């Protein structure tokens, strides 16, 4: 029998995932054929994953991780792989923003229409991406959902960045993904709003016009480097790093925070929307 091909985990994250898969398989003394038989895949498919030539789907990776007792090591690598692949499809300024976001100590978001990605649930993200990318395959959608979910790892750091979010009331009123998905999404926002590391404010319809009514705005602060601002609308986004520009955006954001509902009143409005608009029999009142 030919010796197994040496794997170079430095080539790509797909190759690293393959090497980890082989390590766990050999730890159990299983052949590629035995793994494939247990999970209903061909041994050639398992070989392709190990060689890094054809990475697994999310469902396949979950099954492999569970069957091999990898303790989440394979699925965590898959999320990193998908996130990196997703970054490659974005313009340079978006890739730079995502890298900066992961390093920020404070994140300030304003969103007029949709829940910011770092706060989205899987069901909400899936519905929004499916509508925004009507020609994408289900596999492509699932990869993008996984990439968006992996982006939320920054909120699980120790300590996590402080997150301050101002949402237009349209964000909590517009149903995305159906009532069940929307209820769970608002519950997620409420959970964040009640944590010590986040503040959520809602800009109600009744407060009329305000400083930032167009696209979304993100402000990132760091422990040892200057703040940056990121603006996004219908067209391409803009990453601003010039101090004067960032200061102007910060001032605009501060005006919006002053005009929005206070955090306690915002949380009450979110919970009211949950019960009045999206409460379903499977949920108990909060």
TrEMBL record:
Coiled coil feature spans: none
PROSITE patterns (alphabetical): HTH_CROC1
Domain HTH cro/C1-type per the UniProt entry, residue ranges: 21-77
Pfam families from the UniProt entry: DUF5753, HTH_31
InterPro entries hit by this protein: Cro/C1-type_HTH, DUF5753, Lambda_DNA-bd_dom_sf
Name listed for the protein in its UniProt record: Helix-turn-helix transcriptional regulator
């Amino acid at each position: 029998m030919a010796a197994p091909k040496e794997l170079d985990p430095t080539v790509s994250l797909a190759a690293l995932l393959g090497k980890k898969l082989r390590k766990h398989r050999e730890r159990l003394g299983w052949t590629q054929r035995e793994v494939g038989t247990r999970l209903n895949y061909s041994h050639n498919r398992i070989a392709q994953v190990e060689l890094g030539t054809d990475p697994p789907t999310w469902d396949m990776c979950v099954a492999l991780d569970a069957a091999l007792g990898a303790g989440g090591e394979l699925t965590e690598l898959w999320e990193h792989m998908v996130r990196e692949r997703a970054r490659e499809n974005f313009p340079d300024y978006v890739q730079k923003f995502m890298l900066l976001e992961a390093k920020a100590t404070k994140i300030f978001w304003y969103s007029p229409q949709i829940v910011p990605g770092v706060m989205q649930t899987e069901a909400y993200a899936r519905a929004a991406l499916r509508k925004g990318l009507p020609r994408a395959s289900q596999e492509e959608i699932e990869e993008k959902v996984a990439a968006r979910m992996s982006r939320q790892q920054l909120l699980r750091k120790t300590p996590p960045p402080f997150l301050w979010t101002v949402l237009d009331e349209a964000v909590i009123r517009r149903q995305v993904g159906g009532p069940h998905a929307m209820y769970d999404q608002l519950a997620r926002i409420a959970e964040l709003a009640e944590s010590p590391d986040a503040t959520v404010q809602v800009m109600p319809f009744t407060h009329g016009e305000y400083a930032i009514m167009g696209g979304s705005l993100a402000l990132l602060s760091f422990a040892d480097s200057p703040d940056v601002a990121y603006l996004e609308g219908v067209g391409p986004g803009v990453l601003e790093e010039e101090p004067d520009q960032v200061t102007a955006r910060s001032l605009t954001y501060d005006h919006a925070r002053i005009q929005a509902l206070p955090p306690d009143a915002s949380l009450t409005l979110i919970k009211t929307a949950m019960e009045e608009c999206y409460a379903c029999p499977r949920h108990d009142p909060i």
